[in-house]
Amino acid sequence: MGSLSRFHKIALISLGAVGGGLAYYQINSGKNEKKYGAYNSWTTNFTPSVKWDKNWDHREPESIVRPKRSDEPEEENKYNEKLEKARSKAVRHLFLIRHGQYNVQGETDKERTLTDLGRIQADLTGQRLASLDIKWDLLVKSTMTRAQETAAIIAKHLDKDIEVKDCQLLEEGAPIPPEPPVGHWRPEPRDSARIEAAFRRYFHRAPPEQTKDTYTLLVCHANVIRFFVCKALQFPPEGWLRISLNHASITWISIMPNGNVVLRSLSDTGHMEPKYITSR
Questions:
Q1: Is the peptide bond before 257 cis (omega within 30 degrees of 0)?
Q2: Which of 91, 152, 187, 219 could form a disulfide with 213 if both were Cys (CB 3.0 to 4.6 A apart)?
Q3: Which residues bind substrate (predicted)?
């Protein structure tokens, strides 16, 4: 019985070794390389799950300039000159400001005015924007009451010669159905089209004739800003509801000359004391 017991032990050890070898082979074989492969974070030895769309704003020079007709040197030179003229040369900085806290009990837009706290929040944000020592080129505000009031308070801290515009496209709404879903809620199709149109109006690289960086303020709403951030960074746009924004917060996006987009800050309220910070 003793020798039989030793035999069983040897057999079990052998089977375990064989099984381990098979498992190692399966994990490290080329067939499973994509499934189990791991790379150092500093390498580029991988394929991106989603590639960046260089022509997201339809302003990539190669998409604007007519293709060359031949490979002749003269034709090549003319083509390159046209490409160079079509290239953006400056940065467009967009500062997206959410309105301050407002009366959510109001039945109409005119009744949804800023609360006392909302006015304090807007004033603090105006002070913060003024302290950045930036030459603001344009202030665009949603036509809804809470955004109009917020923009008016902020404007008191800025240069008096800043250009100010109203824009209905920036009004609050639901851009697209969020993922994960929220109950049986669905957006209005007209809101989806309007907010998409707002994105196309304000998010694009600088035109070739622009030689200096520009700084634009957009005073609008949480849903609109969250959607803009996802779209600009080419993240799944249906994830917009996963982002939270504080009242009167600053979200800063830069659009580079080559079309790359940089999110410099998101829902920044570091200029406020904690007692003034709210989001709902």
A1: no
A2: 91
A3: 146
Q: Looking at the structure, tell me whether residues 65 and 124 fall in a common domain.
A: no
Find the distance separating the first CA and the last CA of the chain, reported in whole Å.
76
pLDDT of amino acid 37: 59
CA separation, residue 3 to residues 14, 15, 16, 136, 168 (Å): 17, 18, 20, 90, 89
Q: Which of 8-12, 16-20, 186-190 has the highest mean pLDDT?
A: 186-190
Confidence of residue 256 (pLDDT cuts 50, 70, 90): very high
Sequence-separated (6 or more) residues with CB below 8 Å from residue 132: none
Tell me: is residue 226 an annotated ligand-binding position. no
Domain boundary among 63, 87, 111: 87
Q: Tell me, yes or no, whether 79 and 111 share the same domain.
A: no
User: What's the pLDDT at 108?
Assistant: 96
Residue 42 lies in a domain: no
Residue 159: which domain range?
92-276
Structure tokens given for 222: 């949480």
Going 53 to 56 to 59 to 65, the CA torsion angle's sign is positive
Please give the pLDDT value at position 107.
Answer: 94
Pairing of β 250-255 and β 261-268: antiparallel
CA-CA distance, 172 to 212, in Å (whole number)? Answer: 31
Say yes or no: 119 and 253 in one domain: yes
